[in-house]
Specification:
Bound molecules: adenosine monophosphate
Shape: globular
Largest sheet: 9 strands, antiparallel
Helix content: 25-40%
Number of strands: 17
Radius of gyration: 20 Å
Distance between the termini: 33 Å
Number of helices: 11
CATH superfamily of the largest domain: ATP-grasp fold, B domain
CATH topology of the largest domain: D-amino Acid Aminotransferase, Chain A, domain 1
Order of helices and strands: EHEEHEHHHEHEEHEEEEEHEEHHEHEE
Length: 355
Amino acid sequence: MLPAGSTIGILGGGQLGRMMAVAALQLGYRVIGFAPEGDNVAAEACSAFITADWDDSAALSELAARCDVVSWEFENVPLATVAALPQALLACPLRALEVAQDRFHEKQFVADLGGVPAPYARVESGEDFDAAIIRIGTPGILKTARDGYDGKGQWRVGSALEAGGVRFPGAPCVYEGFVTYETEFSVILVRGKDGAIRFWDSTANLHEGGMLARSILPAGALVEAQVPAARELAARTADALGYVGVLTLEFFATRNGPVFNEMAPRVHNSGHWTIEGAATSQFENHIRAIAGLPLGGTKTRFAAIEMRNIVGDASLTAHQILSEPGEPHLHLYGKREVREGRKMGHVTRVSHAIR
Ligand code: AMP
């Protein structure tokens, strides 16, 4: 167990790190963040922040010397950065990052455990792309295998004719068939060092432009019916990785059952509602897990919950948002630069407490 006063290192400087740091501070830990130059909004919640490139070995040695455990808030931290740290310091296994950083490996890993992804093919050239279109058909989506997030690095292919207008982008990709689904949902779990797993309720996730816009509970009958199978797969994935902390798997709820989309070896945007809406938030349970503390309950505390992202919009004031009905809880991430499509904060609204 990590004694109070110990130091947790967090790789990445975004809002997830900021909320992880707040949870760690509450439990009496110090936090040192680490990320390259940028709008590192986690820094304000950290005891110290190291601004350095991912390959700055002196800065990584300093992080290692000052921390008792190291976690990450971002799955695209270069593997070499994490591999350069003493492996005993890592809260979660490097293998989890390795698998999740490549869409092809991720789908294969989960399919080997019995999961059902959309039909997919690795695309490393224009010829591969043509072959994938013939084998899988259209409509589909070409996605860069690495570094894509929030719908970036993705090209929709409506028809074989349209495929001619989509150029292979030069970097390895995955082409996948377009899934007809009713709702998207995610399974968020926390796994302790002893292997015990707890799940939060699954919200219905509504996306706009490839990015999460809202998460809603209750998620509806179709999602609820598919959650048990999705949880089993998520638990098998966490066990196979020897995972510790919060792990997220995203699914499409289709008429033929849950179709696996992708996983995130970290806390997740679709779990922000757990701060006010669950007995213990995803952020606190992640810290508890990596610190070897007893995990907290994950039960939902309200009958109806909605989390809405505030994206690229600085025009709404805190006063306006907090005047809305439905017990709004506002989280602003303190980002200095407003850009279209940038997550600036979120609002969680809860109603009808469950006794
Ligand atoms: P991803 O980055 O893979 O999570 O994709 C972002 C969003 O694009 C997803 O949450 C879906 O809304 C949509 N999407 C991605 N892949 C597919 C697919 N194969 N079929 C239908 N919609 C998809």
